[in-house]
Amino acid sequence: MASPRVRPGDSTRRAATLADVAEPGGSGPIGPYPPGADSDEQRADYDKLRRRVLWRMPSGLYVLGSRGTEAASRNLMTLNWATQLSFDPKLVGVSVERAAYTHELVEQGGCFALSLVDREDRAIVRKFTKPVEVDVDAQTLNGFPYVERVTGAPILAQAAAFVDCKVQERLETGDHTFFIGEVVDSGFLRDEDAPILRMEDTRMNYGG
Q1: Which domain holds residue 93?
Q2: Dihedral of alpha carbons 172, 177, 180, 181, sign
Q3: CATH number at residue 170
Q4: Pairing relation of β-strands 111-116 and 154-156?
Q5: C-alpha distance across the termini of the chain, in Å
Q6: Mean per-residue pLDDT pooled into runs of 10, the chain (208 residues)
Q7: Total domains present in the chain
Q8: Would you state the pLDDT for residue 162?
Q9: Helix, strand, coil % over all residues of the chain, rounded to 5
C-alpha cells in the first residue's frame, strides 16, 4: 500500500488508519513508460492512469491464514492477489509481499489457508490489516475464532468457504513472492450460495 506502506496483518508494523487501508500499493512512478511519457509530469500522469487500469482487474478479497514453527506464530491477513492455477493437481497461488510477517510464516510453515469471506462480513477484512493478537488457548486471532484443518494454518471460523494448501513452489515476483499451494482440504462453512466478497464491494485498493 502507498507510503506510508501498510502491510496487511503484519504484526511487526504499526496499526493502519482507515485512510492508509484505502491507499493502493506502490512507491511512486515506476517504469517502463510508453512513448510520449517523457517528462516527470507525463510519467506521473501515466503512473496514475496505469494504476486505475490495474485496479479495474476483478479480484476477490480474502483472509489468508499462515503459521510458523512456534505455537503462537499464527496470523490472518487480508489479501486479494489469489487465483486458481491448475485442474490436476488442484493448485492455488497467492502473492505475498516479502516484507510482511505472513511471508515469514508461510515460508516457515510451508502452508497457507485461504478463507473466502461472505459479502455481508465485508467489515471483517479491515480487522486483519492491523497487527493481530494471538490467543492460542481461546483459538482466536484479533478476537475472531479460527479453526485448523490439515495443514494447521488458521481458517477464519466465520468464513463462507476455505481452501487449505500445502506449498509446492515459490516464485519471486518483484517485491512479492508467489506461493503455489496444492489444495489438501476445502469446504463450505456457510451456505454454499452465500455471496463472496470482492474488492469492488469495498473502498479498499491494493495494487497498481
Answers
A1: 1-208
A2: positive
A3: 2.30.110.10
A4: unpaired
A5: 9
A6: 31 32 55 93 93 88 95 94 96 96 97 97 92 92 97 97 98 96 97 94 86
A7: 1
A8: 97
A9: 20, 35, 45
